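User: Some background: our group keeps a shared notebook of sequences we're curious about, and every so often someone picks one and asks for a predicted structure to add to the entry. Today it's my turn. The entry only has the sequence so far, pasted here. Could you supply the structure so I can complete it?
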Amino acid sequence: MAFESLSEKLGGVFKKLRGKGVVTEADINEAMREVKLALLEADVNYKVVKDFVANVKEKALGEEVIKSLTPGQQVVKIVNDELISLMGGSDSKLTYASSGFTTILMVGLQGTGKTTTSAKLAAYLKKQGKNPMLAACDVQRPAAIDQLEVVGGQVGVPVFTDRNSKNPADIALRAKQEAERKGLNILIVDTAGRLHVDEALMDELKEVKKAVKPHEILLVVDAMPGQDAVTAAEAFNEAMGVDGIIMTKLDGDTRGGAALSAKAVTGKPIKFVGMGEKLDALEPFHPDRMASRILGMGDMLSLIEKAQENYDEEKAAELEKRMAKNQFTLEDFLDQIGQIKGMGGLGKVMNMLPGVQGKITDDQLDEGEREFRTMEAIIFSMTPEERRKPEILNASRRKRIAAGAGVTVSKVNSLIKKYEDTKKLMKQFNNGKFGKKFGRRFGL
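Assistant: Of course. Here's the predicted structure to add to the notebook entry:
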């Protein structure tokens, strides 16, 4: 996951500061040296690092910080505020037409995930109540048309294609006319990329831009190459002007430098980030939440939003009734596992919790995911009656279930223990002062 190493290093720096009753100028200088090294190792642009550290240092040496009761915490707050500012300050939303039809032009180098990201954006906009169409205007790579048709079909969005034309500007214009005729309100134009920025690519994109007059030009960049991504963003912005950036593969093994440098270097905000391969894994970029994750403070707002997306009000109400009657079953337990998987899996959930990012290894997360799969296999090996009435699970039944799931009896016993512990916890929680409200929010 991006920023893990940076988060760990900054956590070490701030732990030292928080432990001091008094923070001196020497302490802050030492801390800023370590922050500078951590940012450079994360592949953040050198000038960006230099300015960032200077700004933090100037504010951290202020009298109100040095003489405060908690100077270490004050410094952490300053760093948090500067990180937010560095990444854009506030959320940057898409620009739509004041009325009627909106056109979004997707540009970028080859291999950044532009075609898949176009479909992800369409899926996101569809969830927002929009009616999008995708236009396949990458005539350089025939497979791109096939790919867009496939992913467009998967998200339930129509795709305009013309395999006989080699004129992307003409295809885009006719796609726009077709989308308007059908009563749709957004066109997302997927364009060709190259392995590098060149004049031919820019000329082609300028022709498409001239034809459809987009309200938004979004540059898709891959977070993995770090500063190379920022350099590409600069080149595209200078050549044709972009309105925002979509940064893909931010969930991968990337140091995060591109995300921290992009706004400062290009002047253009990151509007979305790709956090996985699934077609629903495109998230609006929130500078404040990302800063919180980097500083190891978690991202509870995103976690709550993820929970709400997977929240089924009818199921939650029914579960609440059963909980009141102490009727929480193994089927309900299985449903809770499914909800965590629906939120992006154990790893994504854990990385949103305060103080957890970087402290759980990939091996531990893999073990957790395997444990989930094992629990599902055990429950699926039970009869419907056994799932609804776990109290009938005697030794012979447990032996049969273990054989059916391909596990040991001790694994079955462990699952039953986890289920019983969860049942007790949820009963206590449901009886608490805010249990019902929280339980409804999270589908518990």
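Suggested note for the entry: The two ends are 28 Å apart (CA to CA). Strands lie at 102-107, 132-137, 159-160, 186-191, 216-222, 244-248, 270-274, 282-284.
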